[in-house]
Structure formats: C-alpha cells, structure tokens
Specification:
The complex is a heterodimer of chains A (about 170) and B (about 130). Chain A is about 45% helix and about 10% strand. Chain A is of the alpha+beta class and about 170 residues long. In chain A, strand 1, helix 1 and strand 2 form a beta-alpha-beta unit. The longest helix of chain A is centred in the last third of the chain and has 16 residues. The N and C termini of chain B lie far apart (about 50 Å). Chain B has a single domain, classed as Glutaredoxin, CATH 3.40.30.10. The radius of gyration of chain B is 15 Å and the shape is globular. In chain B, about 40% of the residues lie in helices and about 25% in strands. The chains are: A alpha+beta (about 170), B alpha/beta (about 130). Strand 4 of chain A pairs antiparallel with strand 1 of chain B.
Chain lengths: ~170, ~130
C-alpha cells in the first residue's frame, strides 16, 4: 500500500561515504533552526519491498545507482534533476536554485552544468573508497590503478577478482 | 548519465528486482530451502548496495533459467542476514556458495558478470562431485 507522503524524500546510499556526508548535510540544512524539515532524508536500506511501498516504480538497484528524490505527487526525479530539486527545497540554497529552471529555447544551461557536475561527482565516488558505487569509469582508471598500487605499498592485498566488494573495505567506508 | 523526471510508471523489465527465478532466503528459511533440500543448490550472498551484485543480477537470473530444474539458485541479503553470512565466513559480495545434499561443495567470490563464467561457476562444483563418485 502506498504511504502518504507530504514532503519530498531524498534517498541516499548509506554505504557510500561521500553520499552519506551529502545526505547528512542536506538533513541538517533542511532542518534549519526550526523542527520543521523541508525534505525527508533517508538511507536506501536493504528492503526492496519497503522502497516499493514508497513508490511502486522505485527499483532498489536503480536507487543505489543514481540519486533519487520522491516527490509528493508520486513522481521521481533522478540525477542532476534530483539535485536541483533538493537545492530548491533547502532554505539556504533555494535563492539560486531557481536558475536551474531558466530555459533558453528549451535549453537549460544551468541545469546542464549541474547534470555534468553530478555526473563527475558520481564518477569519482569509487575513488573515495565507495565499493557500492561500482567501478570507476575509463577516464579514472589510471587514478584507480595508482591508488591500488599505493595501497599495496602499505601492505594491503587487493582481492584477485575485480568484481568483488570485500566486507572489510565496505566497513572502512563507514 | 541519468537525468530524468519520472511522471509515469517505468518499465523495469531490464533489471528485475523481484526475481522470478531467484528467491531470497532468510536465516529462518535457509535450513529448509538450502540445507534440507535435495540436489544442487546455489546461494548468492549479496547486498543491494554492492555494485558488483547489481552487475551480476541479470546474468545470474539468466543462468538460473538455464540450469533449472536441475539446480536452484537462492539469494541471501547479507546486510540483513549478517549472522548467516558470518557463519559461512563470507568475506564480501557477491559470493556464490554451492551446496549438494546438505554440504558445501564449492564457492566463488566475485565471478565475472558474464553468462559463461557464472554458468561455469554454478555447474562445475557439482560436475566434479559426480565425477568423484
């Protein structure tokens, strides 16, 4: 059954240190000085059915892949659009967030810039130890190799499979 | 890059979440579904927050269709079933553990997300068992 949702819900990846820090910052900013919060911030969690109760179209794998914000009208915004929505809802940032809606012949330059910024941030997350964020993209592979090589100097042995997230590494990210 | 607003139901058929072939087992159902079951059983120890599990999910789903009804594949969410994962000394995800007639006969950590590698991973331990008999 669909739950009543009076405010936007921002879902963040609690297993990713970068995402967790951003999630907590949004939570603090949304709260402001009052007890009333403009946006609900919650971790994605581990229960696909619980997520589907928020929105039947919400897929837990997709939620971990890209930032999602669930709107009170039951729509979802993803990626850079979700970031823009968050900035529109925060008291400290809504003054400039209106710029993301500026459209010149259907082209939204500020939104495009935000989308690119989000894509870059999403790409670099694995370099900050986020194993749940996937493999770094090709342009970041040399940095990944250097990081791995540097870790071996400190005695850390990488797992032989490149398709494996070790539990020890995941707990270090917390 | 995914930037979109979803106003309408999305087609999620590309990556099924509630798998038709792979069922989730919990600590409560593990004994009955895995340890007490007859025949080859594969258990994927996974986590939804694990990108490699996300990558392997559609592949494993495909393999599950290929190996049925000879083999059954189950999933254990280690973020929820931490004690179960600890009891099988799971070091990370995804880990495929193969059971035959109540006993572990093999395991593979982080198989390559290709149908051929996963298929080999989930069939070879059982084939070598039958060869030794």
């Amino acid at each position: 059954m669909m739950q009543k949702q009076p405010k936007p819900i921002l879902l963040f990846n609690d297993e990713c240190a970068v995402c967790r820090h951003i999630g907590h910052w949004v939570q603090r900013s949304a709260q402001g000085k009052s007890d009333e919060t403009s946006i609900i911030v919650q971790p994605i969690g581990d229960d696909p059915e619980k997520l589907r109760s928020l929105n039947p179209d919400l897929d837990i794998w997709d939620a971990y892949e890209t930032i999602h914000i669930l709107m009170p009208d039951r729509s979802m915004r993803l990626g850079g659009e979700a970031v823009a929505e968050v900035l529109r809802d925060l008291p400290n940032t809504k003054w400039f967030a209106g710029s993301f809606a500026i459209s010149i012949f259907g082209f939204r330059p500020f939104q495009v810039m935000l989308n690119v910024a989000y894509a870059i941030l999403a790409d670099v997350r694995p370099l900050f130890g986020c194993e749940s964020c996937g493999k770094p993209r090709v342009w970041l592979r040399p940095v990944e190799w250097l990081t791995k090589w540097a870790k071996t100097l400190f005695g850390e042995r990488p797992h032989p499979s490149a398709h494996f997230s070790s539990l020890s590494a995941a707990s270090r990210g917390r | 890059m995914i930037n979109e607003t979803l106003q309408h139901p999305r087609n999620t058929s590309v990556r099924p979440t509630s798998s038709e072939k792979i069922q989730t087992v919990t600590a409560i159902t593990f004994t009955r579904s895995v340890l007490e079951a007859e025949g080859p059983i594969v258990v994927e120890f996974m986590s939804y927050g694990c990108a490699h599990c996300r990558e392997i999910e559609p592949v494993l789903e495909q393999v599950a269709k290929m190996v049925e009804p000879r083999e059954k594949i189950f999933r254990v969410n280690i973020a929820v079933e931490q004690e179960l994962a600890a009891s099988y000394q799971i070091q990370g995800t995804p880990t495929l553990v193969m059971f035959l007639n109540h006993n572990e006969v093999g395991r593979v950590e982080g198989p390559s997300p290709a149908v051929s590698s996963v298929l080999t991973a989930v069939t070879q331990p059982f084939e070598s068992q039958s060869e030794t008999k």
